[in-house]
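Quick one:
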Amino acid sequence: MDQSGRYSPQSAPATEDGFDLAAADAALAGTPFAGKLRYFPTIHSTNTYAMQQADAGAPEGMVYLADEQTAGRGRGAHAWSSPPGSGLYVSVLLRPRMAPADALWLSLAAGLAVRAAVEEVTSLRADLRWPNDLLLGRRKFCGILTELNAEVTRVRHAVVGIGINVHQEQFPEELRTLATSLCIETGRNWARQDLLLALLQSLQREVSALTSATNHAESILRRLEGASSWIRGRRVRVEEGEGFSGITEGLDARGFLVVRTAEGLRTVYSGGVREDHSATVR
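Output:
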């Protein structure tokens, strides 16, 4: 933050796991992200900043990257812990040609992109928990927050925010059964720049296909079925409205999760989904 109180992008530090933006730009040649990486040592929230920049006319493909977030956000009212140097905290500005009703596909495509990038770099195969969490075993290591500015018939811009736990060696007691990191799962540290490059390249492939191919949504549905143990046959508690429990029955044609409850099938539109061993159906 400069003396005026505004956040100003800076050169990334030459630390053991810093970011070499010049090398990243070279590796991203031919993608919409080349020359558009902006790094902040600390910032309130990369998503908040990216949305502000998008409103001010920033071009598609801008990537806002931080070493620390002081007010990182997840879905709903959830906060995202973003301690200095521990994770990959990045928000990507997109201007996709799509209707607001189709925006869920962006989050689902981003989840597949993260999963592919993590597997490419670490060989770990993450589990996708609908719509935007990635888990290793039963513990979460990545969250995705997609935000929109839209008219009735078109999306003006979208920001896809991704937080990945990379270097954390432990978590507070209250989070140890819920959260994990790539370091905890593998016993080694991974270069965040390698993850960033793999992620952006994978995200570009997914978004390009999503906005140009009429059947890409069907492809996402098929691949999600193979990438997630949560989509079918999982007993869950849904934090939507007053909450309800049931067994997941797959995704509908729009990408929303369908749950069989004691009262019948229900579609999950926005609520968080968690495992529920007590869920029963008639």
